[in-house]
């Protein structure tokens, strides 16, 4: 409703005059350009903009004004106090002139209420308000610490900013795959590309949800005051219950989970899953530890006899990228998509 009025004022302004509008920016509910009367003031413009936000600085604000002179125009900056204007001070309730720009500043060190969610084996799980610079150990202490059934070595810590980054990387990778598929389609190697599978992977990467996991050593965080993680708004910590199984996934005969056997090595679990399939890459077998760290044996699982497995670990046997002729990005794409899937599966297990 305001825009047509502003356009009418602009269309009817007389030569040499300024349009009777003023702009307000900053911490008001509806910043923008508003028509003004001859007796408009700071408080009237603030009211027209829907009032102040809770983060508005009441001590200092600023009006930027254009002063027309014979030699040209000159901009002037006028400071005011909203607190004093609201208390009745006429000198601080500055009169507004055409083309003024009023800036309502934000309070210094202002931040919205930040929260972190603790779940799983903590004494008092729930959502906690956090202060700037607070550490994870302090928040856990406020939650009563961990229960006797907790497995801190398998703690899952997720951060919203990392989740958004992962989703962006997945989208970028999907776009690169689409470009390469288009290039392959007009090259001599098109016949060797598994087009349907790649298109399916591109579709999955486009809609995949990020996990945002940050690998932490929760035992050390709770025991070493010099080793901590500063928490952020939207962080999540899930502390699992003590687990007694080991999972084997990927290119094995039977992908399954096994009861943890003390002293069993990586090779023992692979054999218990039926061994490797023909398309398995035995030189790239790796272990995702319960805390999210990835452990890669020295050479292959045949020579990795020193690779001990712990409860909650996941053994991953990837496909051999050279088993069939695939796109150069296929291996990276599968790896990223699989890691996200493993992360989501870990979240679902709590």
Automatic annotation (TrEMBL):
GO terms for molecular function: polysaccharide transmembrane transporter activity. Residues 257-322 form the Capsule biosynthesis GfcC-like C-terminal domain. It holds the Pfam family SLBB. Residues 116-153 form the Soluble ligand binding domain. Residues 23-104 form the SLBB domain. It comes from the Bacteria. This is Sugar transporter. It comes from Psychrosphaera haliotis.
């Amino acid at each position: 409703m305001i825009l047509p009025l502003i356009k009418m004022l602009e269309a009817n302004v007389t030569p040499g005059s300024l349009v009777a509008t003023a702009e307000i920016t900053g911490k008001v509910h509806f910043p923008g350009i508003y028509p003004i009367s001859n007796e408009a003031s700071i408080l009237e413009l603030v009211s027209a903009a829907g009032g102040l936000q809770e983060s508005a600085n009441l001590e200092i604000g600023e009006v930027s004004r254009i002063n027309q002179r014979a030699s040209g125009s000159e901009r002037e900056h006028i400071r005011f106090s909203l607190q004093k204007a609201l208390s009745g001070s006429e000198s601080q309730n500055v009169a507004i002139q055409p083309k003024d720009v009023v800036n309502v500043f934000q309070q210094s060190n202002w931040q919205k209420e930040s929260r972190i969610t603790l779940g799983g084996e903590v004494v008092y799980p729930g959502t906690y308000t956090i202060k700037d610079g607070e550490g994870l150990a302090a928040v856990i202490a406020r939650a009563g610490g961990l229960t006797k059934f907790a497995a801190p070595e398998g703690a899952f810590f997720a951060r919203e900013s990392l989740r958004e980054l992962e989703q962006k990387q997945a989208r970028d990778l999907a776009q690169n795959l689409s470009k390469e598929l288009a290039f392959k389609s007009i090259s001599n190697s098109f016949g060797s590309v598994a087009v349907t599978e790649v298109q399916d992977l591109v579709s999955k990467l486009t809609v995949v949800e990020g996990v945002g996991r940050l690998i932490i050593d929760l035992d050390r965080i709770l025991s070493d005051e010099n080793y901590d993680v500063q928490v952020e708004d939207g962080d999540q910590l899930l502390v699992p219950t003590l687990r007694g199984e080991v999972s084997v996934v990927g290119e094995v005969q039977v992908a399954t989970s096994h009861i943890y056997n003390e002293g069993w090595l990586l090779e023992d679990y692979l054999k218990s899953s039926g061994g490797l399939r023909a398309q398995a890459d035995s030189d790239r077998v790796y272990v995702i530890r319960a805390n999210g760290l990835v452990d890669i044996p020295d050479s292959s699982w045949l020579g990795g006899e020193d690779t001990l497995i712990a409860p909650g670990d996941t053994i991953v046997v990837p496909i051999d990228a050279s088993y069939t002729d695939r796109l150069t990005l296929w291996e990276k794409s599968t790896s990223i998509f699989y890691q996200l899937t493993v992360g989501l599966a870990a979240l679902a297990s709590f």
